[in-house]
TrEMBL record:
One of its GO terms (biological process) is carbohydrate metabolic process. Transmembrane segments: none annotated. One of its GO terms (molecular function) is carbohydrate binding. Residues 648-734 form the Glycosyl hydrolase family 31 C-terminal domain. It comes from Massilia timonae CCUG 45783. Residues 317-617 form the Glycoside hydrolase family 31 TIM barrel domain. SUPFAM superfamilies: (Trans)glycosidases, Galactose mutarotase-like, Glycosyl hydrolase domain. The keyword Signal applies. CDD domains: GH31_glucosidase_YihQ, GH31_N. Residues 1-26 form the signal peptide. Belongs to the glycosyl hydrolase 31 family. This is Alpha-glucosidase. InterPro entries: Gal_mutarotase_sf_dom, GH, Glyco_hydro_31_C, Glyco_hydro_31_TIM, Glyco_hydro_b, Sulfoquinovosidase_GH31, YihQ_TIM-like.
Length: 750
C-alpha cells in the first residue's frame, strides 16, 4: 500500500518540477537562438495616434482609430532588428551597361536583440538596447515619431566603438501565410510578391527577363543583361499588403525585401542607418494617399496629350511628312509626333542608335520649323528625345567637351570621366550631384529641346547606370546615389520646364525611377518590353508593371505600343525576324494602351522587321478606331489625373484597390480598372478571340453590347473580344460609362 501511495506523489512532484523547468528550458533555448529577442521592459506607449505595445518579448503597433487592428508586429521571441558587417562584390554589366550582380559576404552578424530601456519623455519614443552575435556587440537607438498624417517614422542608429564597422541593417516582422504583398515599384512579372525576394535596385530591366532559352542566349552572346523576373528600372522599397499593412524605407541605399517565409518578412538594407515609416489607412487608396504624401504626386498631363495618339516617326524630314500624310488620310487623331532621332543616327551592333549630342541634326532634319508648324496646324505637338549620357566620338562630342572641361561628368577614382559602355560605344554620364552640372544640362534642355526644336515633350531615357565605384562632385557615396540618380534626373527635367515657364504644357516621360520619382516626373513608361506575348518581358508585363507601379505612386504609367526589343537574322542580305511583333500583337497592344493614361507608339529597336502602324490599311483603320476611343475617354482621364494629383490614386488600378475585401482579386495580373468605373481585360494570348475575366460584386455593363452582367458577390465570365472590341465593362449606373457610350455612338461605333 505504501508504494502505491508514493508513486503518485513522486509523479506529482515530477510534473510540478517539469512545469517549473520547461519555461526555463524554453527561455534558455530562446536565449541561445541567434536571433532571439530579450526584453527587460514591458509596457504600452502612445506616439501621436499610434500605440506601441512591448510585451512577451515582442512589439505590436496599432492606431487609435482601430484599436483592435495590428499594423505591424514582431515575430514573438525573435529579434526585429539586426546589423551586420558586409563586403559587397558588385559587378556592372550588360548591353547597355546598366545591369548589376551584387554578392554580399557577411563578416559579422549581430542578429540577437535586447530591449534594455524605453524613454517616452518627449514626442519621440526612444528604444535602447544591444544587438549581439559572434564577435559582434553593438548598442542601438531606435526612435519612433509621427512624421505627419498617419505615418509613424522609425529611425535606427548604431552607437559605440563597433558601430562604424557595421554597414548592414535588418528589419523583420511577422506575417501570415495568407497575407499578400503588393507594390515594390514597377514590378513587371508578379503583382503579388509573396514567396519572392525582391532586390530594390535601379537597373536595366533586362532583355527577356528570364524568358526560357532566350534570356540565357542573350546573356551568352551579350555578356549578360538578360535580367530576371525581379529586375526593373523603377523599384521602390515600399509595400502595401492584403491586410492593409504598409511600410516603406526612406533610404536610397540598396535593399532586399524577402517575402519567402510564410510567417515573416525580412528587409535587409545596405547601410546601418535605417529609416522608414509605417502607415495607417482604412483602405488601399488611403494608404496610397499617405505614401504619396511623402513621395510627391504626379500632376495632370496637359490637355493636348488626350487629344489622340503620340506616334513615333524616324528617318528624316521627308519620311516624317510622308507619315503625316498617311495619318491624315486614315483619320487618326494625333496628339503629337515623336521624333527620337532628331539629333542624328549612328549604326551600331544593335542597329540604328542616336548621337547623344543633344543638338538638332539639320542635315538629317532640314526644314524642321516647317514640320513643327505643320503639326501645329493639325493641333498636334512635337516630341523628341534626351538622356543623361553624352557622346564622346569626334564630330559628335561638342557637349561632351564642354562638360568634360567644366568638370560636369561622373568620374573614376583617377579623376578621368567615367565612360560607360552602351552596345559598341562609350558615353559619359552627367554628374547630377554637381549643382553647376545640373544648371548646364537644364540649359541644354531649355535651349535645344524647348528652344531650337520647339518640342512640347521628350523621352527622358536611362538613369540606371551610375557606377557604384564612381566619384561624385558632392563627395557622397555613389552606393547611396545610385538609386537616387533617377529621382534627380526627373527633377532636372521638371526644373527645366518650370524655369522655361512651360510647366503644365510640356511632358517628359521617364523609364527609371525610385521612391520619390513620382513627385518629380510628369509621366513614366515601362521600359523596353520584348515584342512577345509572354509574361516575362512581353505584352503581359505592360499590365503588371502599371498595376504594381500604381500601388507605389506611379499614377501615370504607359508602355511602348507593340513593345520595343526585336531581333532578326540577316539571311542572304535580308533581315529575317526571330523575335518581332506581328500584326496581331501590335493590334492587341493598341487596344490595351487605348484604355490607359497615354497612347504612344514606338517603331521599335528594329523597325524593318516589326509591324508598324502603317504596315497595311487594316492596321491603320484599327489604330484610327482605338485612337478615337482613347480621345473619347479624355473627359474621364482628366478627372482621374486630378484625383492622382490630389491623392496619388493611379489611373490604371488593380481591382484590389477598389475591392480590397475580395480575395479573388489578389491573384489577378492581366486585367485592370481604369479609375473606379471601368474593368478592362485586354487580349494577351496569341490567337484568342475571347477573354475570361473576373468581375467583382455588383452589376457590370458590357461596353460593346450594352448587356448587363450580375456578378453577385463576384464571378468569372467569358466574353467575345474581336479586334477593335477588347473586353471592357463599366459599373451599372456609372455616369462615366454612359457618357463614353454616347461619345462612341457619335463616332459611329454602334
Amino acid at each position: 500500500m505504501r508504494t502505491r501511495i508514493l508513486r503518485p506523489v513522486r509523479a506529482l512532484a515530477f510534473l510540478l518540477a517539469l512545469n517549473f523547468l520547461l519555461p526555463l528550458s524554453a527561455a534558455a533555448m530562446q536565449a541561445q537562438s541567434p536571433d532571439a529577442l530579450a526584453s527587460r521592459v514591458d509596457g504600452a506607449y502612445r506616439v501621436g495616434a499610434f500605440s506601441l505595445s512591448f510585451a512577451n518579448n515582442g512589439l505590436r503597433i496599432g492606431h487609435a482609430a482601430e484599436p483592435a487592428r495590428i499594423l505591424w508586429a514582431s515575430v514573438p521571441g525573435r529579434a526585429f532588428l539586426g546589423a551586420a558587417q558586409g563586403q559587397a562584390d558588385i559587378r556592372q554589366f550588360g548591353t547597355p551597361d546598366g545591369s548589376y550582380r551584387i554578392d554580399d559576404k557577411l563578416l559579422a552578424q549581430c542578429l540577437a536583440q535586447s530591449i534594455d530601456a524605453i524613454d517616452n519623455a518627449t514626442d519621440t519614443l526612444v528604444v535602447r538596447g544591444r544587438l549581439r552575435g559572434p564577435g559582434c556587440d553593438v548598442a542601438y537607438r531606435l526612435a519612433f515619431d509621427v512624421a505627419g498624417g498617419n505615418q509613424l517614422r522609425f529611425r535606427l542608429q548604431l552607437e559605440g566603438p563597433q558601430a562604424a564597422q557595421l554597414n548592414r541593417s535588418y528589419l523583420r516582422h511577422a506575417s501570415s501565410a495568407d497575407e499578400r504583398y503588393f507594390g515594390l515599384g514597377q514590378q513587371l512579372t508578379w503583382f503579388d510578391q509573396k514567396g519572392k525576394t525582391i532586390p530594390v535596385l535601379v537597373q536595366e530591366h533586362g532583355v527577356g527577363r528570364g524568358l526560357p532559352g532566350f534570356t540565357q542566349l542573350f546573356d551568352l552572346l551579350e555578356g549578360g543583361g538578360g535580367g530576371s523576373e525581379v529586375s526593373t528600372g523603377a523599384p521602390a522599397p515600399h509595400y502595401l499588403s492584403s491586410k492593409l499593412n504598409s511600410l516603406f524605407l526612406e533610404n536610397t541605399e540598396y535593399s532586399i525585401f524577402d517575402f519567402q517565409h510564410p510567417e515573416r518578412v525580412e528587409i535587409k538594407l545596405f547601410t546601418s542607418a535605417l529609416t522608414g515609416r509605417i502607415l495607417y489607412g482604412r483602405t488601399p487608396l488611403e494608404l496610397i494617399r499617405e505614401y504619396t504624401a511623402y513621395t510627391g504626386r504626379m500632376p495632370p498631363l496637359p490637355d493636348w496629350v488626350g487629344r489622340g495618339a503620340i506616334v513615333s516617326v524616324q528617318g528624316g524630314t521627308d519620311e516624317a511628312n510622308k507619315k503625316l500624310d498617311t495619318f491624315e488620310r486614315a483619320g487618326i487623331p494625333l496628339a503629337g509626333l515623336w521624333i527620337q532621332d532628331w539629333s542624328g543616327v549612328r549604326i551600331t551592333n544593335a542597329g540604328k542608335q542616336l548621337w547623344w549630342n543633344w543638338e538638332l541634326d539639320e542635315s538629317y532634319y532640314p526644314r524642321w520649323d516647317a514640320l513643327v508648324d505643320r503639326l501645329a496646324r493639325l493641333g498636334a505637338r512635337m516630341l523628341v528625345y534626351i538622356n543623361p549620357f553624352l557622346s564622346t566620338e569626334a564630330g559628335h562630342d561638342s557637349l561632351y567637351q564642354q562638360a568634360r572641361q567644366a568638370g560636369y561628368l561622373v568620374k573614376r577614382q583617377d579623376g578621368t570621366p567615367y565612360l560607360i559602355r552602351n552596345t559598341n560605344f562609350d558615353a559619359a554620364l552627367v554628374d547630377l550631384s554637381n549643382p553647376e552640372a545640373r544648371t548646364w544640362i537644364k540649359n541644354v534642355i531649355k535651349n535645344e529641346l524647348l528652344g531650337h526644336t520647339r518640342a512640347s515633350g521628350w523621352m527622358a531615357d536611362f538613369g540606371e547606370a551610375l557606377p557604384f565605384d564612381a566619384v561624385l562632385a558632392d563627395g557622397n557615396d555613389p552606393a547611396a546615389w545610385h538609386n537616387r540618380y533617377p529621382e534627380e534626373w526627373a527633377a532636372v527635367n521638371r526644373e527645366a520646364m518650370m524655369e522655361a515657364g512651360r510647366e503644365g504644357d510640356v511632358i517628359a516621360f521617364h523609364r527609371s525611377g525610385f521612391t520619390r520619382s513620382p513627385g518629380q516626373g510628369t509621366l513614366f513608361w515601362l521600359g523596353d518590353q520584348l515584342q512577345t506575348w509572354d509574361g516575362y518581358d512581353g505584352i503581359r508585363t505592360a499590365i503588371v508593371g502599371m498595376l504594381s507601379g500604381g500601388v507605389s505612386g506611379y499614377s501615370l504609367l504607359h508602355s511602348d505600343t507593340g513593345g520595343y526589343n526585336a531581333f532578326g537574322l540577316t539571311v542572304l542580305g535580308r533581315q529575317v525576324p526571330v523575335i518581332a511583333r506581328n500584326k496581331e500583337l501590335w493590334m492587341r497592344w493598341v487596344e490595351l494602351n487605348a484604355f490607359t493614361g497615354v497612347l504612344r507608339t514606338h517603331e521599335g529597336l528594329n523597325p524593318a522587321i516589326s509591324w508598324q502602324v502603317d504596315s497595311d490599311a487594316e492596321t491603320l483603320a484599327h489604330f484610327a478606331r482605338m485612337s478615337k476611343i482613347f480621345r473619347a475617354l479624355g473627359f474621364y482621364r482628366q478627372g482621374l489625373m486630378q484625383q492622382a494629383a490630389d491623392s496619388g490614386a493611379p489611373l490604371v488600378r488593380h481591382p484590389f484597390l477598389e475591392f480590397p475585401s475580395d480575395q479573388n482579386t489578389y491573384a489577378l495580373r492581366y486585367q485592370y480598372m481604369l479609375g473606379s468605373d471601368f474593368m478592362v481585360a485586354p487580349v494577351v494570348t496569341r490567337g484568342a478571340q475571347a477573354v475570361r475575366l473576373y468581375l467583382p460584386a455588383g452589376t457590370w455593363i458590357d461596353l460593346w453590347t450594352g448587356r448587363p452582367f450580375d456578378a453577385g458577390s463576384g464571378a468569372w465570365t467569358e466574353v467575345a473580344a474581336p479586334f477593335g472590341k477588347p473586353a471592357v465593362f463599366y459599373k451599372a449606373g456609372s455616369a462615366a460609362g454612359a457618357r463614353l457610350v454616347t461619345a462612341l455612338r457619335l463616332e459611329g461605333f454602334y
